[in-house]
Amino acid sequence: MTGAPAETWRRFKFSTAPPWAIWVGGVLVASILARRASGYLPMTRASVQRLRLARWSPVALLAVAFLCWILAVIVGAAGGNDSTTSSIAGFLFIVGSLLLLIGLIGLVVVQAAYGPTARVMEQQPGQYEPVVELRRVHPNFVNAVRQMQAARAAQHPLQPGSR
Question: Bridge partners of 38?
């Protein structure tokens, strides 16, 4: 995806919901009516590591947020009426709430803005699979895909009378 020679393949799943589905029935209807495609894309190991870090960091923040809440409950219950322990419990609860908010925002931002995205188009008559339009990929990646498609087309030329 960066334009450098690929070292590994990573599986991606893409889905595209009709624009009207959110307005008619919300997220549930949109997820039911979404066109889906999945497959492997070539990437460098460094790109896979960066993508993995970006995708799992918000999840780690959510886990730490719940850990802070559990600690807040434990400290609050163990301290009784002591003002110091109740202050610590309140601080842990606030930190946990902030980490939860940051983690949720991070999940949305990472899904929307990091890594390759795609639009799954409707399957056209005569095609076996729907066309997937990749977005946010390097121009060298696009050129390599075009070269691969040209090589495949050269290996299997159309016969006269066939379509």
Answer: 13
